[in-house]
Amino acid sequence: MSAPGATSIRIRFTKAGRVRFVSHRDVARLFERALRRLRLPVAYTEGFSPRPKLSFGLALTVAHESEAEYLDVELKQPIDLEALPAELTSVLPDGLAVDAVVTNEPGTMSLQQAIVSCDWTIEVLGATEDHVRAAVADILAAGELPMERVRKGKTTVTDVRPAILELEVAGPTTDGVALRASLATESVSLRPAELVRALGPGLVEGRVRRTHQWMTVDGARCEPVSPPGPSTRRALERAS
Fold this sequence. Notes:
By secondary structure, the chain is of the alpha+beta class. Helix content is 23%, strand content 37%.
């Protein structure tokens, strides 16, 4: 239970450039350090080893970039949020940039519970554009897409076709072919690397960027925090 006067804020940030090789756990540590440097009134857990009350959205695979990452932070008291994006960005490494911060309303679902799908741009290496287009057409026409997965040492077969909500070829890149994909994250989920594997043998995942995370509120699809505008794109281009 939160203490009287406590509030929760939601941070939207980007991850691009060389910092994409930093793990999810280390990104959490970087934000913990940044919050301490700004001396924000972050709430801590109780017990022998108190930890700041931070809750991230869906973990991003190492080497993937993102235009839309999220972090919830519980504070002991409300603060002025207007300057916070710039202040946080100034104490984070290059490639991590905070775009927006909002106050969570009481009863807001956690990010892990709320996110139902993600949009991606995925570079595919090892095939021509015609080959990739044919493979995409085959997947979209398929009634099911069985995939072997190993979980806790056991191999299972899952039909991942329901997890592919949208899929199209965006065009050639310098080294391969770019896809745009919308992939579910709930009961049947699919990772970008698995999608590339499903396209056929010999194909390799190249540059990958998460462009959106989506949740559903009152039947409408929306983002946890709306994007701030063209500044996001410029920050990503500088970091790449």
